[in-house]
Amino acid sequence: MSGSQQTRLASLHDVELATLAAAGDRSSFGELVRRHGSGVRGLLRRMGAQGAEADDVAQDAFLAAFEGIAEYRGEGAFAGWVKKIAARQYLRRLQREKRLAALALEAEEGEPGSPVHADAAGRIDLDEALKTLGAAERLCVSMCYGAGLSHGEAAEALNLPLGTVKSHVKRGLEKLRTRLAPPGGASLEGSRANG
Amino acid sequence: MAELDFERGLERLFAEAPSFPDAEAFASRIEGRLARGWNMRSWLIGTAGVAGGIVGASQLIMSNFVHRVEDASQGSTKLIQTSIAQVKPGFDLLSIVQSDWMVVWVASGLAVIAMGFVLTKVIEEI
Prior knowledge:
- The structure holds two protein chains of two kinds.
- By secondary structure, chain A is mainly α.
- Chain A has eleven helices and no strands.
- Chain A has helices at 3-10, 14-22, 26-47, 51-67, 78-96, 100-105, 126-130, 135-146, 151-158, 162-180, 188-194.
- Chain B is mostly helical.
- Chain B has a domain at 49-125.
- Chain B has helices at residues 2-15, 23-62, 65-87, 100-125.
- In chain B, helix 2 (23-62) packs antiparallel against helix 4 (100-125) and helix 3 (65-87) packs across helix 4 (100-125).
- Chain B is elongated, with a radius of gyration of 31 Å.
- Chain B starts with a helix and ends with a helix.
- The interface between A and B is medium-sized, with 40 and 28 residues.
């Protein structure tokens, strides 16, 4: 891809790029991957996928997104749309490999951890905090707050009762609140402004 | 309220993408896979179009289409020529068209190409 074309693509909005991609322009879709690839890879890791597996799922998710790009009509953020695809792809993989049921039944304690304090720049390490959650809690919290799924959608995707998902989310949030709200430190609200 | 603020803050933390040193390589891998998939699809569509064209051509030839078109062509040429001769005796322009076989074969060839093109487009749309 030439430099001028790259510059032109970089100046376009996600919706414009998606429209071009829907017309078969692969370089426009490549630009979308450049913009949102790290977000999707990060989400999958936060859901509990390991490095190589997370990247495999992220690749499959982007390929699926390209196939179904005509369905994206710009009503929400492209990042949110593709993250939902990635989260569902990961769950399908867990189901196919019969790991999902085991994960849902796994003990609810994650790694014991001390409160996660903000660093000198005021940033809070969400990834460290998520490690203190049980696998099911981490999955549910990441799906609802990272991929933007509703509790109902998460329950359907996980094939779990809605009440169970709500419990996992509630417990997960309680643990995160303890970890992410260090006394006297930067609050969760303040971390964004500084970071 | 505090609960809602916490949840919004959490959403914002989730929205912050971590940085990956191989982000560019990751995007290139996906572009490569898309290009491979696209090439394969182009070949499949092209092959299907050509196969469809060949099948269509063979069907036309087997169904004695050429002779029927030739007969129809000759019949209509005679009819038109008779009509024109009545209006203006000696007018012989349509005899040029009577190079029968060549016209029919060219028309059949064009029909096969058109059929292949239409099939290719249909498969592409599907």
